[in-house]
């Protein structure tokens, strides 16, 4: 039995993107860690004039060589409201 975890084929981050929310006297700032994404990969929507929704998709990794031992970086769709 291997002492290493089995490889994961995908890491579903749907709603699991960490965010910091900072409120100043006249503004709100949101800081998110979205490695590998550009501003064109991320969608911002205002829902019912009261909620900010952030969504996008991390591209799948494409390594054809070697054996995965672990995959911790996110792939797939995410959404945070």
Automatic annotation (TrEMBL):
Residues 55-81 are annotated as: Disordered. Signal peptide: none annotated. It comes from the Eukaryota. InterPro entries: A-crystallin/Hsp20_dom (IPR002068), HSP20-like_chaperone (IPR008978), Small_HSP (IPR031107). Residues 60-74 have a biased composition (Basic and acidic residues). Keywords: Stress response. It holds the Pfam family HSP20. Residues 8-81 form the SHSP domain. Belongs to the small heat shock protein (HSP20) family. This is SHSP domain-containing protein. It comes from Ceratopteris richardii.
